Amino acid sequence: MTSGSSQDRPAFRIRPARRGDAEALRYLVAELGHGDLADAQTVSWLVSHPEIELMVAVDPLDRCIGVISLSHRPQLRLGGRIATFDEIIVTESWRRRGVGKALLNNAVTRAKTLGVRRIEIYPHAVHYPSAHAFCAAAGFHKVPGGIMRMEFPAPARR
Ligand SMILES: CC(C)(COP(=O)(O)OP(=O)(O)OC[C@H]1O[C@@H](n2cnc3c(N)ncnc32)[C@H](O)[C@@H]1OP(=O)(O)O)[C@@H](O)C(=O)NCCC(=O)NCCS
To answer: What does the alpha-carbon distance between residue 16 and residue 14 come to, in Å, rounded to a whole number?
Structure first.
């Protein structure tokens, strides 16, 4: 688990999502205008999926204030795994306090541990300017199609 705090910032921490977070996640996704699509069944599916990792940022009362979803699978042309970050959301009242960055860094570290060679994020058009700035600040670069990408070199083969 990762935590973020400083004298002028309230503490938050990052932990794996649980089925009990479903209601809070529904609200987070709804904040982006996706309605009620993130239902309990879908959250349960994500939480138990072997190639998906769902992590949440929580406030000191363990209330979800952000979420990131890491989806990964092997890809032949990469000789390793490719990952996508399908959701990165921080609730409006907690934005620009480092929560998104902490979620992203945590997921990148986890992806590297899983042997991921490339991570892609497909920012939603509605959030383009801020989403691109956020991803670029974390070291992702823009490739054609608006995709934000981060790559790790393949280990030398013998
Ligand atoms: C994008 C989002 C996840 C960022 O979360 P956050 O907790 O506010 O981000 P952080 O505070 O960790 O920001 C880290 C850095 O990213 C950049 N950044 C973040 N939000 C930004 C914005 N709106 N405009 C420009 N740069 C931004 C800044 O460089 C920032 O560092 P700074 O605050 O020291 O300047 C959040 O705004 C959000 O949920 N947006 C709606 C959904 C979305 O667009 N998701 C991302 C899809 S790629």
So the answer is: 7
CA-CA distance, 156 to 152, in Å (whole number)? Answer: 12
Q: What are the φ/ψ torsions at residue 77 (nearest 5 degrees)?
A: -70, -15
Q: Is the confidence at residue 8, as pLDDT, over 70?
A: no
- The verdict on the CB of residue 154 being under 6 Å from ligand 1 is no
Closest residue by Cα to atom 26, ligand 1, is 133
More confidently predicted of 25 and 10: 25
Question: How many domains does the chain divide into?
Answer: 1
The reported pLDDT for the residue numbered 125 is: 66
CATH number for the domain that contains residue 110:
3.40.630.30
What's the pLDDT tens digit per position in 85-139?
999 999 999 999 999 999 999 999 999 999 999 999 998 766 778 899 999 999 9
Q: Is the shortest distance between the CB of 135 and ligand 1 below 6 Å?
A: yes
89 CA: nearest ligand 1 atom: 39
Which ligand 1 atom is the nearest neighbour of the CA of 137? 29
